[in-house]
């Protein structure tokens, strides 16, 4: 599986799998650099995620905070929520309904 992240104004749409095999194509992750202060990560087309993907997501949240940006996660799939629960990081995720 592959991963595509497309920027549509201040929304980044994730399509495919966010995992240890696909993350390297977005390293370093530069799509945040030209976004506004508030950015949405849209996971409506995310097919799967693993713990490496979750760790990467947490890293992006920290980087955005350092840059004075906020990220809102929308259309978060159950698999991501389950991983966040198992690893006890769900309170760190800025999920919008």
Quick structural gist:
The chain is of the alpha/beta class and 97 residues long. It is built from 2 helices and 5 strands; from the N terminus they run βββαβαβ. It is 26% helix and 34% strand.
Main attributes of the structure:
five-stranded mixed sheet; 97 residues; globular; alpha/beta
What does this entry look like structurally?
This protein is of the alpha/beta class. It is 26% helix and 34% strand. It is built from two helices and five strands, in the order βββαβαβ. The chain has helices spanning 51-66, 78-86; strands at 3-8, 11-18, 38-49, 70-74, 95-96. Strands 1-2-3-4-5 form a five-stranded mixed beta sheet, with helices on one face. Strand 1 and strand 2 form a beta hairpin. The chain is globular and about 30 Å long. The model has no long low-confidence stretch (mean pLDDT 93).
